[in-house]
Amino acid sequence: MVTIALDALGVTLGRRPVLRDVSATLGGGSLIGVIGPNGAGKSTLARAILRLVAAQGRVLVDGTDAATLSRAELARTIAYLPQGQTLHWPLAVERLVALGRLPHLAPFSRIAAADHAAIERAIRLADVDALRDRVATELSGGERARVLLARALAVEAPALIVDEPLASLDPGHQLEVMELLRDQAAGGALVIAVLHELTMAARFCDRLLLLDGGALVADGTAAEVLTPARLAAVYGIDAWIGTAGDAALVVPLRRCGDDRTG
Fold first, then answer.
1. CATH number of the domain enclosing 124
2. Which range marks the domain in which residue 60 is found?
3. 52-65: per-residue pLDDT in tens?
4. Strand runs (DSSP E) across the chain, as ranges?
5. pTM of the predicted model, to two decimals?
């Protein structure tokens, strides 16, 4: 299992600090949700871990400074699904998923049997087998999101970062994706998911990192992090927090100070 340690991680874009002094140790075998309001620094944190943006502090991957790893080494260790990715080339879905194997291939080498097996596993896990011969640029937003998740899964890296993986998905596929991410973690992977859906985060994540204003303001289980006081302070909402059966629920009721009930 891989461990990723964040040591006083910070990012400044232009003159504006968007991530400030974030420290945490993230271990394999867990699904970790990164939550917070718009502009809190969630996506920036994901990109900083992957060295896609200049950052202060350090990211340690199994004790090794990520800055000393090659791009290919880092890509083989941490698969990444960015948010809102645009597709520019009319590739067949199967070929698009196969791009996930690039970190494992030497220049000019061919895809081997092990790569084909990984591609098939990813297609099955993301439930896109029926789409494999479709042109990716002609897919709906939800179909495209699942195909891009399959591409990330095809890397078969010990760590996976997914940024808003539920965007554009209907409720059934949202549940399917969260179950898939939970299963990946149960199998030993470190899964870091940037999420806006608080109920999904509360229900499926082993641990939540709550960001606000670029700072880590809470780190713990859903029960520890998603308290009425903290939701009011960070999101500015009054919310109902409870369960339905064994499923955790977080239902925003109104903005703080809003007495309207209709």
1. 3.40.50.300
2. 3-234
3. 999 999 999 999 99
4. 3-13, 16-27, 30-35, 56-61, 64-65, 78-81, 159-163, 190-194, 207-212, 215-220, 237-244, 247-255
5. 0.93
